[in-house]
Design brief:
With about 775 residues, this protein is an alpha+beta fold. Helix content is about 30%, strand content about 25%.
């Protein structure tokens, strides 16, 4: 069991096994697709074969005659309902009702006794379309005369965001070198293994829905709004979740609304499971973006100013896009000192599938551009890339030009760890083995934790003490595979001095668990962890008062440790925790002990319009080295080694922190050199993992994670974000390594073998 000393703790800082491990490896864990209810019907969705078209008529006459079909719905059944992230951008219907705006958009849904019958009925639904011209490139969509996707946005700008701090023109005039470049990130998807699924049952004037969601309370509100229900008539039960990473698992999808509507009509439970092809054709994906970056640098490597313009392909609807645009700019003032900064972000409607959040939300795009451009300039000035980063790296405490306040920062320490490593020191020893070119690259990045946005943001926890000393823990936070349930139990165990196995965490059920904003932006340990800590302390306070009366001491003199409750400096005056629970519950008329806690940001307000203030409670810093081998004949890249020096504050479970960093780094590797949707006029041509090409186990390099310990006062026990930083740091580190091997800078992701082979031949470096 891996341990890291982060304080005088019994359970924190130790790599205890995950609480869900046994259920998952034995197959006992139930996912949404596993749930079945007697009398259940199957839902299938008819999808548009066109990317942009008016819906003239939908004829369901023949489909309704199919034996076993119980109900068919179209977009008109939802009576104009739209959902989205904020009132001004609620533009997406559950099923298209006036026109389709992307290939694969749902236009009708069938409930039948089995999947085959539902599929048969879909084939008999006749839809008359009037095809409209489409636009599939965001820069083309901005041009005058381009097809209009939504009438309320005639210029096709879904959302725009602007930041302007300091004086960039003055900063550029002070620079010895000013460089402007165009960068682009690819069309990628989250890559979870569990497709979207839900089962809904409408009864008694309300609905219960089991859904594969990492933020189930988003769905809870969407269903209430759509069906005009009070929230206490919407019950969302959270099964196990097979990966999320944002996007579709963070938001609602057409199937969620359809199964509720079909259950309401039929009075029977209705279930849908998207195929993986449906997910990859129609589900939310990361924004692909074009970044025009301009940077000024002095001869000694000091950055004087940066200006960026980002144009993102938002696809057919707005979704959570405004927050994405905000994040592309607000974190660009980290992790380096930047006195002058200007940023303009445009999210553009196209007839492509909807773009939304994904791990490393927003920051991946602009950080990739800035990191590579900074290194290009360092090379031009003859400067060492790590030294340039060290020169500009911030140190805590630090306030950025847009008033982001950093109270802990291990960036310099991480960069120095990389500089001292053999991987970096020996990078010049062997640059080529026959036709294999070898390179080592570097990056330094930052990411926020405890993300905040508009609306309800507080996490809450309830602990109920049972008379035998066991504890029931209710939380609205979802473990989507990242291991947060285990860490939350460690926090409670630490506070109460009992082993984690004595605490039972209840999965999210909106009828009982506290409302929670969701699992996104690395917020669970920070905010649900704070709530759990406070709830445990509340319960401990109540128990301490009872124990103090027993031993005629002050409550503050009562200690909870090693499964015992005792008087400080007098352990003989003590009892097992179990016995103290019995006394508390049985004495006199008995007590019911419930601990409660909720999170509070405790930081200044955030100005979302101007990009001023803190988008999270704290900030992680990641320094990364990557070693690659490039085949000069084929352009194929093999990543052999990664070294990740990650400042996550205090790793409360080092094993989970390490695995999360490894997973995020491999996701970033995939986006750097493998992953990309191939599109043809809005149609996805490679909607499967065979052709989309995510990294497999054989592609995973040797990854060393170095824990950089810092102390941040804004998060429980000093624990900060512990993985999203690695998905941000990987692409620039990989591209830096490819440049070191080939001498060629690549500014568009992914850097595929074809691009490398052609560039090498053009440069005369091929075999």
């Amino acid at each position: 069991m891996e341990e890291i000393f982060i304080g005088d703790f019994e359970f924190l800082g130790k790599g205890i096994p995950r609480v869900d491990a046994k259920d998952k490896v034995t197959g006992q864990a139930k996912y949404a697709a596993d749930i079945e209810i007697p009398g259940m019907l199957w839902c299938k969705i008819l999808r548009s074969p066109l990317p942009h078209a008016k819906i003239l008529n939908i004829d369901i006459t023949r489909a309704k005659r199919v034996i076993g079909v119980k109900a068919i719905i179209t977009g008109k059944d939802f009576q104009g309902f739209r959902w989205g992230w904020m009132p001004a951008t609620r533009d997406e219907p559950p099923l298209a009702d006036d026109k389709v705006r992307y290939y694969g958009e749902g236009v009708a849904a069938v409930a039948a006794v089995d999947e085959d019958t539902a599929e048969e009925a879909l084939e008999l639904i006749k839809v008359d379309y009037e095809e409209l011209p489409g636009v599939f490139d965001p820069e083309e969509a901005l041009k005058e005369g381009a097809p209009v996707i939504h009438e309320y946005r005639p210029n096709n700008i879904s959302w725009e965001f602007h930041m302007d701090f300091g004086d960039v023109e003055k900063g550029f005039s002070e620079a010895d070198l000013v460089r402007e470049d165009r960068f682009a990130t690819g069309r990628v998807i989250q890559g979870f293994l569990e497709p979207c699924s839900a089962i809904a049952y409408w009864e008694g004037g309300g609905v219960t829905i089991w859904a594969a969601k990492q933020s189930p309370y988003f769905l809870y509100r969407h269903i209430a709004q759509c069906f005009k229900l009070p929230l206490n008539k919407v019950r969302v039960i959270q099964p196990f979740v097979g990966g999320g990473f944002g996007g579709t698992k963070n938001d609602s999808v057409a199937g969620d609304f359809c199964v509720v509507m079909l259950s309401k009509i039929t009075g029977r439970p209705v279930k849908f499971i998207y195929t993986m092809e449906e997910v990859m054709i129609s589900a939310r994906r990361r924004h692909n973006a074009i970044i025009y970056n301009k940077m000024g640098m002095k001869k000694d490597g000091t950055i004087t100013a940066m200006q960026s313009k980002l144009i993102a392909d938002g696809g057919a609807y707005t979704a959570i896009g405004p927050l994405t645009m905000y994040l592309t700019g607000c974190i660009s003032t980290l992790p380096y000192k930047l006195p002058n900064f200007k940023h303009d972000a445009y999210r553009v409607f196209t007839n492509n599938p909807v773009s939304a959040a994904m791990r490393g939300h927003g920051v991946t795009h602009t950080r990739f551009a800035a990191e590579i451009q900074m290194e290009m300039m360092a090379e031009e000035l003859g400067l060492d890339p790590i030294e340039v980063r060290l020169k500009n790296a911030i140190e805590a405490p630090h306030e950025t030009v847009n008033k982001v306040t950093v109270l802990s920062c291990g960036l310099k320490e991480g960069l120095l760890k990389l500089k001292e490593s053999n991987l970096w020191k020996e990078r010049e020893k062997e640059k080529r083995k026959n036709h294999i070119l070898i390179g080592v690259g570097v990056s330094g990045t930052a990411y926020l934790g405890g993300a905040r946005q508009r609306g309800h943001q507080a996490a809450a926890a309830v602990l109920r003490l049972c008379e035998d000393g066991s504890i029931e823990y209710l939380t609205g936070a979802t473990d989507a595979g990242q291991g947060s349930d285990t860490v939350l139990l460690q926090i409670i165990a630490e506070e109460l001095g009992v082993p984690p196995e004595q605490i039972d965490i209840q999965r999210v059920d909106s009828a009982y668990t506290p409302v929670d904003p969701g699992t996104y932006g690395s917020r669970v340990t920070a905010l649900a962890g704070e709530a759990a800590m406070k709830a445990a302390r509340d319960l401990k306070r109540q128990l301490a008062e009872i124990a103090a009366k027993e031993w005629n001491v002050k409550p503050e003199d009562i200690v909870f440790k090693n499964g015992k409750v005792f008087v400080k400096d007098n352990e003989e005056k003590g009892l097992p925790f179990r016995k103290m629970a019995q006394i508390a519950c049985y004495s006199g008329s008995g007590r019911v002990l419930v601990g409660r806690g909720h999170s509070e940001y405790g930081i200044e307000p955030l100005d979302f319009e101007k990009g001023i203030g803190n988008a999270g409670t704290s900030y992680s810093f990641t320094s990364q080295l990557t070693r690659v081998e490039v085949d000069a004949e084929t352009g194929f890249v093999k990543c052999t080694d990664m070294m990740i020096a990650h400042d996550c504050g205090k790793p409360l479970n080092p094993a989970i922190v390490e695995s999360q960093n490894q997973g995020a780094a491999v996701q970033g590797l995939g986006q750097a050199i493998y992953e990309e949707f191939k599109m043809d006029k809005g149609k996805t041509l490679n909607p499967n993992f065979a052709d989309y090409k995510i990294p497999t186990a054989l592609d995973v390099p040797n990854i060393e994670v170095i824990h950089i310990l810092t102390e941040d006062p804004n998060v429980p026990y000093g624990a900060k974000e512990a993985s999203e930083g690695a998905i941000v740091s990987s692409p620039p580190s990989v591209v830096s390594a490819i440049h070191d091997a080939t001498g060629i800078w690549f500014k568009e992701l992914p850097v595929t073998p074809e691009k490398i082979a052609l560039a090498l031949r053009e440069k005369g470096r091929g075999s």
